[in-house]
Amino acid sequence: MPPSELQASNKTGPPATQITKESVRMRLCVALLAVLLPMGACATSPHGHDAMATGIFVVPDLPVTIFDRDGAPATYLDILDAASDADVVVIGESHGHEVGLAFAGEVFEDLLQSRPGTALSMEFYERDQQVALDDYLQGVTDAEAFARAAHRSEGNDPPGHRRMLEAARSAGAAVIAANAPRRYVTLARKEGFDRLRSLTPEQSRLFVIPETPPGGRYKDDFVELMSGMFADGSHGTPTPKDQIPAMVEATFRSQSVWDATMADSIARTVRTTRPVVHVVGRFHSDFEGGTIQLLRRQMPHLRIVRLSMIIAGDQAVTEIAKEDLGRADFVIYSGTLDDSSPSPSTSPTAREPAGESTPVSGS
């Protein structure tokens, strides 16, 4: 691909407009008027946008607290500003958390307004489900047929994901099944990359093998986490200590296939459509996680904005936690709407085991 095609300035699609941002501002201020009046209405944050006087902005009906990567208070409109100028927006979610997923839906819907044609890329759909997605988006199948074809259920299709999918469908936007099918990821873990390389071209288009797996803090955190899980039997029977290193390395091999495939799916899409909003478990994107590393290797000039959704529960958040500094461009602490939300947690957890040990995917 010529270097000129990699330049972030060559964006596809119409640019963000000030009119859209002003309409968002009005919507947010009106919705919060009753709360803000005692504090002097919509105050101006250091970033130049509307915020509560404390610098902590509450999206309508969503208890969230937002900080930038350096720990300074930020607002929802700061996120929209940054996202509107980005080539790729990565939303690192805490899987299944109601408030965080609703927040992600807000961001995606507002980007669809300011940047029509924004594409949605999702970890939670695998490449062999792309036709099922396209059939539903194009009206070939109905919701019930789509759920059957894409193997959707309450357990793997939370309201926040459905909201984003329906928003894309209404706007005529593309939705990308970004991930590698689990059977090939499992094969990488059990039999190695050479086994994947032996498969047919038709099979091989469904996954990507990284030339060099991601590393740095991402791998260090993965090794620490999975070593503990194997040792304490989180996925079943505790693993003998001398077997843990080999099992962790094999599991990281499969994790790398997920990261490489998602990075490739984003890169393929962003060459013709910008921005791309990629929704993924935050372990893959926090602190320049594996998906981000491999995407930057392919397209180093991309402007990537990363969000990390951290479950705060009912705890009041007034400043960023020291361990969250630099986690993402924006760190969003998500509260709870009621007692049905998951218990507070900031530790990455494993994907659904599907009957066997599987790589880390989110939190």
Describe the structure.
This protein is an alpha/beta fold and 363 residues long. The protein has one domain (16-362): Rossmann fold (3-Layer(aba) Sandwich). Helices cover 41% and strands 14% of the residues. The protein contains 14 helices and eleven strands. It has helices at 3-6, 18-31, 33-36, 76-84, 98-114, 130-137, 143-149, 159-171, 182-191, 193-197, 201-204, 216-232, 244-270, 290-298, and strands at 43-44, 50-51, 64-68, 88-93, 119-126, 175-179, 276-281, 304-311, 330-334, 349-350, 360-362. It has a seven-stranded mixed beta sheet with strand order 3-9-8-4-7-5-6, with helices on both faces. Strands 1-2 form a two-stranded antiparallel sheet. Strands 10-11 form a two-stranded antiparallel ribbon. A hairpin with a 5-residue loop joins β1 (43-44) and β2 (50-51). α6 (130-137) packs antiparallel against α7, α9 runs antiparallel to α13 and α12 (216-232) packs across α13 (244-270). It is globular. The model is unreliable at 1-58 and 340-359 (pLDDT under 50).
Produce a short descriptive summary.
Helix content is 41%, strand content 14%. It is an alpha/beta fold.
